[in-house]
């Protein structure tokens, strides 16, 4: 039996709990402090997730005294669009969803970002409860209040900070994830090991098979530790002025790889895996990272079945995308790990060195 743990995001009156454990969907009624005058829960989800978990969620919300309006959005990244958002607003109007009602996001990061943004904008902001059902969403996107949608011009260009009322991470839901999704999520988890919590790396090194296979006890420990890191960073730096930037470890190169491969070759966590190999090698070459970090990085990621080589991109193209990034106003910056558990920001490394390390990913 997997114990339930509660982690807190500390943001004054916008503080909230993250509950992590197995079989929590059926306890949504008791785990969440529902707004006193809430009558309706607008559940935003997709067909696949609702098919798997809808009955349990619906029964729990009804026990909490809420009328459930289920809104299914299309599967995949294309759901984070102005069209789907507009459709949600119209459904909210027809229900009608009132100021004291609540939006419940049940799904992966796509559903969470979209539903969170719809909640942020509806009636100038209604409460949202995040119920993440992918590993990436549980350890990352559901925590911290970043919400938004994509435009044809770029990803996440329209958005808002809107902290949830609570995050309910039921690790039992991860059992039905396709194994590639679980492995990609573990890439994001490994990131926390390099920047903040070395125990996460030990877990991934000693139990890679259990983690990729979806063992609930191992995943519960991983989600607890990952959520604790994200919660702590967000509590310290809600709007990404300082420490939150360290969460971009492996992401400067990772995002460029995703963009240059039209978002259809690598899952996000896979591109971040390549980005972490890059960061460790650059760090060692610059004398910032301890010797052996790159070798350990490759070993951990190989053990999880994540890509560590085979990148077929021209370093010049990668550089161009990185320097156009919205976060690169003052030149390309990289997050580098000094040793597992600690990371720093490094400005403007030598271009020739960056190209060299990028070539090593081939
Ligand atoms: N807000 C943030 O801070 C933040 C951080 C990181 C990523 N994101 C966003 O998150 C999104 C990616 O999220 P994701 O990786 O969860 O992808 P996703 O939401 O597309 O989910 C991946 C797939 O898994 C399916 N699925 C979800 N739960 C399932 C379950 N329990 N069983 C079986 N299948 C299930 C989904 O239907 C989907 O096909 C991106 O849009 C990204 O921009 C946001
Ligand atoms: Zn990420």
What report would you give on this structure?
The model has no long low-confidence stretch (mean pLDDT 96). The chain has two domains: 5-176, Rossmann fold (3-Layer(aba) Sandwich); 179-359, Dehydroquinate synthase-like, alpha domain. It contains 14 helices and eleven strands. With 362 residues, the chain is an alpha/beta fold. The chain has a seven-stranded mixed β-sheet, with helices on both faces. It has a two-stranded antiparallel sheet with strand order 7-8. Zinc ion (ZN) is lined by residues 140, 188, 251, 268, 272.
List the keywords.
binds nicotinamide-adenine-dinucleotide, 14 helices, alpha/beta, seven-stranded mixed β-sheet, Dehydroquinate synthase-like, alpha domain, 19% strand, Rossmann fold, two-stranded antiparallel sheet, 362 residues
